[in-house]
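Appendix C reproduces, verbatim, an entry submitted by the partner laboratory led by Prof. M.T., so that reviewers can inspect both the input and the predicted structure.
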Amino acid sequence: MVRLSGDPVPEAANRRVAELIPGATYVELPATLPGASIGEAWIPVIEQIEEASTGAQHSVEADRYLGTLLFTDVVSSTELVASIGDARYRELRGTHERQVRLEVERAGGRLVKVTGDGTFSVFDGTSRAVRCAETICREAEELGVQVRAGVHTGELERTGRDVTGLSVHIGARVGSAARPGEVLVSRAVHDLVAGSRLSFTSRGQQELKGVPGLWELFALDRAGEQIANLPVEASMATPMDRTALQTARSAPRVMRTALRIGNAVQRRRHARTKS
């Protein structure tokens, strides 16, 4: 019997049910990370079921491939918390994370991880990643939050759903070098998107902490027009993710309306709790 940490059903009740099932084993899995999709949330459950059924988990070998990384980070989050309070900041950050996931999936990418005030996504299309970064920064500004973004293309190593490699560290450093509200890209990205109507301004060669050599970075000036009906490769999303993405493409206004309604419900619940 599998239980996710944070499940509203009491742990004691779950353990009692497991005791009543002949041959059952009780397993408690860690809570799903913020920003995880429905498909990603079910992966540890499925792996646990596979291990219980076969006696061993399926071993996944590392796979190296070329991909584009997008890193985003909320600027001066500590100062923002101090000025608006913990509750308001949690609400803003939750809304921002949902916007990031929606825009990443609409652009054909996959949100790999949410870490504190930042996000890490991977794309198979470089120009789509840059345009997505611009949209994320713009929507965050509309919320009253400043976000910096960095985009880098390089060879990645994939083990299951995790993505690692030196390119990940380079992408993170590019993102940390960006100014508030700015999308900063590496030379690799700049050269790959030639002819895509994306324009940049060189920020010159810079040192990236922990990365050998000097790296020329470019700030996005203009994102140009978005490309409609973007495809998503099977390797970039689970079936559940693709279903949700298809819904967002066919009825984006409905998805945005649902997001606003969800935020309103959360605000009302918070107000009731305080009263």
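Strands lie at 2-4, 27-29, 63-74, 110-115, 118-123, 147-159, 162-164, 183-186, 199-208, 211-222. Additional entries are available on request from the coordinating office.
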